[in-house]
Amino acid sequence: MTSMNDIRRSFLDYFEKNGHARVQSAPLVPHNDPTLMFVNAGMVPFKNVFTGLETRPYSTAVSSQKCVRAGGKHNDLDNVGYTARHHTFFEMLGNFSFGDYFKEQAIHHAWTLITKEWGLPADRLIATVYHTDDEAFDLWKKVAGLPESRIIRIPTKDNFWAMGDDGPCGPCSEIFFDHGDHIPGGPPGSPDEDGDRFVEIWNLVFMQFEQAAGEIVSELPKKSIDTGMGLERVAAVLQGVHDNYDTDTFKALIAASEELTKTRAEGAQQASHRVIADHLRASGFLVADGVLPANEGRGYVLRRIMRRAMRHAHLLGAKEPLMWRLVPELVSEMGSAYPELVRAQPLIEATLLQEETRFRQTLANGLKLLDEATSELSEGGTLPGAMAFKLYDTFGFPYDLTEDALRARGLTVDRAGFDASMAEQKAQARAAWKGSGEKASDELWFDLAEELGSTEFIGYSSHEGEGVVL
Ligand code: ATP
Ligand code: MG
Ligand code: MG
Ligand code: MG
């Protein structure tokens, strides 16, 4: 079997052999970009190269970029454990051309790698194009030999990428693999495209135009290429399994949590093991890149990820903190490709142990309260927002943990009520604050506290974040 480590290496080798500079993954915390929570695509470290603000000693590059999509614009957190293809942390394999080759060569490389080097059957592959992109449509026929029936024109922004209202933009193609008709889901563009039968493995972005104030104003003088392929998704395909969680790395992580909890990743417990494996990777890599659990900003996203995994460990019956004991398995699977994990291993273990020890002190009581509060509710029911707020405030349950806990029972949470309770508590804190007597400065203090403060981070909504759609 081709391991995930082999596939990553083979991707990098292929493009290096074809003249691309091999570039290390950037850290998950973006440099020079306070508007973006985490690096969420392979192109992020190259943004300034695409816009021309920065130059590099190469015009083509290849990388395997660490990505996290668990907050801000791209949030796949709620999908984890429930779809076959979404993670909070994943690796994006990408090749890039900065004004060097364009569409034809990009399609040629993608097709050659997946069908010739890796031997994927052409008749299981589908390509989408932006509905007006006749050039790409014709190239998929000419270069890849795809029949017209398997080149799908998509009129939505799924197939049109833009860095924001200003800057480069252009149509894209997504390559899908058909896992077979035994799996529910329709082809891209169909009403049931969200199923897991046709899985998007690779996204090719053709940066072709320049935008100003949201309108295309010209063709770019130097057209560029940005691609991104999910390593875990293509590994599933190459290893002949449907589900990312059945690939070698995930199997090893899940085997470790099965062993430690003496449970099997089957039936109702399957999602728990998957969430634990996924969140272990995200937690480990985030800590290795300098993020620590906190009550705000990036640290709060990490805390939410950790606590969600810790609730699932509790569900599996773990009597002691579990997550930190899985770190050696993570390091053994991924440490050779990412030496920062090896260096940070003691810190990752200590951080997870401390967080789980703390959280376990209130977890059981919080879950008991949650059970009582929902015992009367039947499927489709809603937990009052005030109760979700109490769980947050008294028991340290991030909002989405409560949501996740209720999901399996078909219950939801009253988000508006939760927000109202949060606002009320803030107002009371303000009223109770006697302060220095200087009203203006007290107001300023509260504004600052709220801006920077201890409340839940609700995401940045800037164009930067939005731009990274790939
Ligand atoms: P999807 O439509 O399946 O959510 P996407 O179009 O949002 O994927 P892109 O932004 O195009 O994804 O990212 C490029 C590639 O990265 C995708 O083709 C996919 O292989 C992979 N990818 C994206 N999001 C995830 C995720 N949450 N977990 C694992 N792989 C992902
Ligand atoms: Mg997505
Ligand atoms: Mg997509
Ligand atoms: Mg895509």
Automatic annotation (TrEMBL):
<keyword id="KW-0648">Protein biosynthesis</keyword>
<comment type="function">
    <text>Catalyzes the attachment of alanine to tRNA(Ala) in a two-step reaction: alanine is first activated by ATP to form Ala-AMP and then transferred to the acceptor end of tRNA(Ala). Also edits incorrectly charged Ser-tRNA(Ala) and Gly-tRNA(Ala) via its editing domain.</text>
</comment>
<keyword id="KW-0963">Cytoplasm</keyword>
<feature type="domain" description="Alanyl-transfer RNA synthetases family profile">
    <location>
        <begin position="2"/>
        <end position="470"/>
    </location>
</feature>
<keyword id="KW-0694">RNA-binding</keyword>
<protein>
    <recommendedName>
        <fullName>Alanine--tRNA ligase</fullName>
        <ecNumber>6.1.1.7</ecNumber>
    </recommendedName>
</protein>
<keyword id="KW-0030">Aminoacyl-tRNA synthetase</keyword>
<dbReference type="GO" id="GO:0004813">
    <property type="term" value="F:alanine-tRNA ligase activity"/>
</dbReference>
<comment type="similarity">
    <text>Belongs to the class-II aminoacyl-tRNA synthetase family.</text>
</comment>
<keyword id="KW-0479">Metal-binding</keyword>
<keyword id="KW-0547">Nucleotide-binding</keyword>
<keyword id="KW-0067">ATP-binding</keyword>
<keyword id="KW-0820">tRNA-binding</keyword>
<keyword id="KW-0862">Zinc</keyword>
<keyword id="KW-0436">Ligase</keyword>
